[in-house]
Design goal:
This protein is mainly beta. The protein has two domains: 106 residues, no CATH class; 116 residues, Immunoglobulin-like (Sandwich). It is built from one helix and 16 strands. Helix content is 10%, strand content 42%. The strands form three sheets. Strands 1, 2, 3, 4, 5, 6, 7 and 8 form an eight-stranded mixed β-sheet that branches. 23% of the residues are buried.
């Protein structure tokens, strides 16, 4: 099939072939009024094909004849391909035909890279945002100290006091506030042990200032009686919880009744 290039005022774009010849074509957006159908398309140009050309497009350029291989029409384009436009031409019978110009879609080529970059940046941001963040105790709730007490001096750490903590026999659940007073410059973590044996029976997660764990579970069921306990309060800076500050220790009594 031999095709001859035709001029058209709508040919405002140029396509450079492998021989560096320029071919004018009608951009897709400007070709709408022509209602070009697949039946009007003689073949394609602009992509590499293993199949042999189905024709040749020619143009007289002075004393030389420019030629462009016309490749088989592709009903379904590849992922990174797009329709750029149409080169008007005529066949041996003088009928108007078009050679479709196929070009690479830069957006589709870059899209997977952009998605990967977004995921990488998001993962990095999440990783960095979690640096210096402790494993907060999920059972902690907003809590106000008795009489509305709070720490007014950020250079100091306010420690709550403990005397007697009671719990029901036959249960491992304790209802008592393990609080971090509002205004403290640090996180709290409670570790509670039996003074007689040194056995740790409870450890909280990190607790933010103004929060408290008001219901917690010890590691074993204790018979009725009174048990001296040792309450250790670990501290971690709000800016970096791994940076310990002054910690506190309190002796108290756990009454099981």
């Amino acid at each position: 099939m031999r095709l001859t290039e035709r001029t058209d005022a709508l040919c405002t774009k140029t396509f450079r072939d492998k021989n560096k010849n320029l071919w004018k074509y009608i951009p897709v957006k400007q070709a709408g009024d022509k209602k070009i159908t697949p039946q009007d398309i003689a073949g394609d140009a602009g992509y590499r094909a293993k199949k042999a050309p189905v024709g040749i497009l020619t143009r007289e350029d002075g004393e030389q004849e420019k030629k462009l291989d016309v490749l088989p029409f592709r009903a379904k384009l590849g992922y990174s391909q797009r329709e750029a436009g149409y080169i008007p031409c005529e066949d041996e019978a003088g009928e108007l035909r078009y050679v479709r110009v196929i070009r690479r879609s830069i957006i589709k080529i870059l899209l997977p890279i952009l998605i990967l970059l977004v995921l990488m940046v998001g993962g990095l941001w999440r990783y960095l945002s979690q640096q210096g963040m402790p494993d907060l105790d999920e059972s902690a709730i907003a809590y106000q100290m008795p009489d509305g007490m709070k720490n007014e001096d950020p250079s100091q750490i306010m420690m709550p006091g403990f005397g007697t903590i009671t719990m029901d026999a036959g249960s491992t659940t304790v209802h008592a506030a393990l609080a971090n007073p509002e205004g403290n410059p640090c996180y709290f973590k409670y570790q509670i042990s039996l003074s007689d044996t040194g056995e740790q029976i409870y450890e909280s997660g990190w607790i933010e200032p103004g929060m408290a764990v008001t219901e917690w579970t010890i590691s074993e069921e204790l018979p009725e009686g009174e048990y001296p306990i040792y309450i250790l309060v670990q501290t971690g800076s709000l800016e970096n919880y791994e940076e310990g500050m002054n910690r506190g220790a309190v002796n108290a009594t756990l009454v099981v009744r």
